[in-house]
Design goal:
This protein is α+β, with helices and mostly antiparallel strands. Helix content is 13%, strand content 24%. The protein has one helix and five strands, in the order E-E-E-E-E-H.
């Protein structure tokens, strides 16, 4: 199954409209104030605000900057 990026679609955060960072199991909002994550279930992004989770600020920073977590 193709990802949205592979077919030329750029997903944005449904909450704040910022760019999303794709990870294997989720999308992460790149906005520091929002920090929402959206699960990918069976290859399909679950882009519902009610189902999103907010990352703690430190975890979000490590995720978007690519720092390794200990």
């Amino acid at each position: 199954m193709s990802t949205p990026e592979e077919i030329g679609i750029q997903l944005v955060c449904p909450d704040c409209r910022s760019e999303l960072l794709r990870q294997p199991e989720r999308y992460v909002c790149t906005d520091a104030d929002c920090r929402q994550t959206y699960a990918i279930v069976d290859g399909i992004p679950k882009m519902l605000i009610d189902d999103a989770e907010t990352l703690p600020e430190e975890d979000w920073r490590k995720t978007v900057t690519g720092e390794r977590q200990a």
